[in-house]
Amino acid sequence: MKKKAIIILLSSTTLGTGSLAAQEYITVSTQNISLALKVSDTKKLEQVYFGNRLKNDEELKAASLPAASAYSTFGGTHTFEAALRAVQSDGNTSTELRYAAHRTEKRDGNIVRTVISLKDAYYALSVDLCYQAYQKENIIEQWVEVTNNQAKGVTLHNFASSDLSFSAADYYVTQFHGNWAEEMNMSQQHLDEGIKIIDSKLGVRSNQFTHPCFLLSLGNPATEDYGEVVGATLAWPGSFQFCFEVDPQKRLRVLSGINPYASSYTLEKGEVFKTPALLYTYSGNGVGEVSRRFHRWGRQYGIKNGSGERSILLNNWEATYFDFDEAKLVQIIDDAAKMGFELFLLDDGWFGSKYPRNSDNAGLGDWHTNTQKLPHGLPFLIEEAHKRGLKFGIWVEPEMVNPQSELYEKHPDWIITQPHREQSLQRNQLLLDLSNPKVQEFVFGVVDKILTENPGIDYVKWDCNRYVTNSGSQYLKPDRQSHLWIDNANGILGVMGKVSAKYPNVCFMACSGGGGRMDYGSMKHFDEFWISDNNDPLQRIFTQWGGQHFFPAIGMASHVSASPNHISGRSTPLKYRFDIAMAAKLGMDMQPVQMTEEEKAFSRNAISVYKQIRPTILYGDLYRLLSPYTHNRTSYMYVSEDKSEAVLFNFLVRKNINGDREAVLLKGLDADKKYRITEINRESDKWSRVSEYEGKTFSGDYLMTVGLRFGMYSEYESVVVRLSVP
Ligand code: DGJ
Fold it and tell me: Whose CA is closest to 73, among 109, 19, 110, 126?
């Protein structure tokens, strides 16, 4: 095949464009990693390499490396799961993609985008493989755009965002799974020949049982600092699927994307199907580096205002549930201000008149203030907060409706349901059908109206308390019912995008009965997410540990709540509760009026300390030291970018009768800098576990080589240490 064009520099932003001949390469590279793709003799696009960036990419061509399809399709000789399965307009079930052209351009100083166009060898169907390489963060974002140019419809049955191949001696995958109140548990398993699927079929609140992310270790199970590991997460709030298939030659293919389950999608002439993006990285230095890359990327690109400011908030949910009135709220606001909080968040129960929202069985959908509870409306409460120097936040759940509501009476046609089947309620509620543009407009209108009528609102907690069942749309045509899963997710993403564009300065929290909606598709429009309804600190240690693998602390809201815990019933010291919440974005879900004077004094002090260490936690680099899964104590630390500040958290997770004296070897410090050690959040009446270090300075070298050695003995004990360059 004759070469049509070579790479040419067209402008300051276009790095390359052209049409390659057989055996030529395209590399998608960041500062430290590369994905190399090759055009085969038959013009198929193949992946030949993914790993650390070489000093000289040209050397990749020296020998023939194991090649696998860069985007496999159903049909022909392909006998494994395929990234794309399309039925052409004449009923042909196969697709054969050939490389057509590519374009590489610099989007700015850090982002390089490569689009590789593939075309079917016979049919008018094109597939663009799109890669965005974030140079400094070493993250690759990949998505796919399928265009039908045939006169009639083409139906897609599988439509992965990415199709990555690996050739290693062994593979281990770590998944993140759980349920309500126990999100983000981690478990690792060896991949044997055959298929392992990690997926969600829930459509909305799709992370309730599984989270859209994985770690893949190559060769051996990766540790924090050693081993080859790939981390990936899908930026999509809907149903997802990761399919790991090991073939008889022990090669592994990983297909990631929207869950194709019951989701066939027909494209009419000219229509484009854009998949969500898979975000991924490769590290030869273990899992810690993968997390730090995602954190840096998340703060810079993945989270709305990801490097902005965050407020320490007090939420009235666990403090009052639905049982509040104006006087009670003003009291809480007053106490919150005196304790040093920066924002008051009014949770569920403030709305509904014909069907007042006094429990979760009525009123959802009727977004007008309940004047029986709040006779002076929201403006009064906003004013009460603002005059005490507190910001004001409000709870909404605009995608849902109670059957007992004015909205449902007016619009029974707006809910997701299957005709002639019994309606299924979860938490007494139904889902609105976001594939319907009128419903999209309504949902946008709910948030828009609250925010325009109350310009003093600084924060919105956007909740979502059920997943999809009875997956039928009253809006979509009978032959398009299978579009619901995808159209609904795109509908909600569209609404979120419109809201965040109109209100860039309002802080949004993504909540989904806890951590049912933690994905980088949503987080582009949200400043933080509520990781769990379960504030029990022992459970939180595990939930936050899991969450930290892909999300930075700035995105992860964590609250101190009452003891015994309302969900687990476990009693724990206030310090333990504060320490774990301070290891992320601190807030509180209890009323100061329920505390003793000592507890109030402790809380006031902890809040003021958090304000000092907040930049290190929210913008610093995370180093995990001891895992709660494999050690009796867990430790991790945040280090500021200039390495002049660090905060070390230690929590005892399993009490050993003779105490736990494991050495804590610090990481991420500057070996040549000297750090002064100060324990923070110490209870005045307790022994300090680190008294022999208190106030002394040690070099980063010492701290990382010899470490801190101190015993931890008591149930629910925690030690937090600040390290500062004097
Ligand atoms: C579920 C959330 O996770 C809670 O924090 C609270 O906002 C309730 N919903 C309110 O109904």
Answer: 126
Peptide bond just before 564 cis, omega within 30 deg: yes
As a whole number of angstroms, the distance between CA 383 and CA 288 comes to 45
User: Taking the C-alpha atoms of 696, 698, 704 and 705 in order, what is their torsion angle to the nearest 10 degrees?
Assistant: -110
Contact criterion met (CB below 8 Å) for 675 and 725: yes
Quick one: CA dihedral 501, 505, 506, 509, positive or negative? Answer: positive
Closest atom, ligand 1, to C-alpha of 589? 5
Tokens matching residue 683: 């209870």
Tell me how far apart the alpha carbons of residues 539 and 516 are, in angstroms, rounded to a whole number.
16
**Three-state SS across 17-38?**
EECCCCCCEEEEECCCEEEEEE
What residue numbers bound the domain in which 197 lies?
A: 6-94+105-302
- From the CB of 317, is ligand 1 less than 6 Å away? yes
CA of 313 to the centre of ligand 1 (A): 15
pTM over the 0.70 mark? yes
Catalytic-labelled residue, pool 120, 128, 533, 589: 533
**What DSSP string describes 614-628?**
HHHHHHSEEEEEE-T
- Token pair of 230 as six digits: 């790939």
CATH code, 657: 2.60.40.1180
Nearest 5°: the CA angle 341, 504, 556 is 50
Residue 463 annotated as catalytic = yes
Identify residue 435 by its one-letter amino acid code: S
Mean pLDDT in consecutive groups of 10 residues from the start of the chain, 726 residues: 33 65 87 96 96 91 87 93 98 98 96 98 98 98 98 98 98 97 97 98 96 98 96 98 97 98 98 98 98 98 98 97 98 98 98 98 98 98 98 98 98 98 96 98 98 98 98 98 98 98 98 96 98 97 98 98 97 98 97 94 98 98 98 98 98 94 97 98 90 97 98 96 98
DSSP label of 471? -
Q: Residue 286 is part of a domain; what is its CATH number?
A: 2.70.98.60
- Residue 255 pairs in a beta bridge with 163, 243
Residue 152 belongs to a domain: yes
Structural domain includes residue 650 = yes
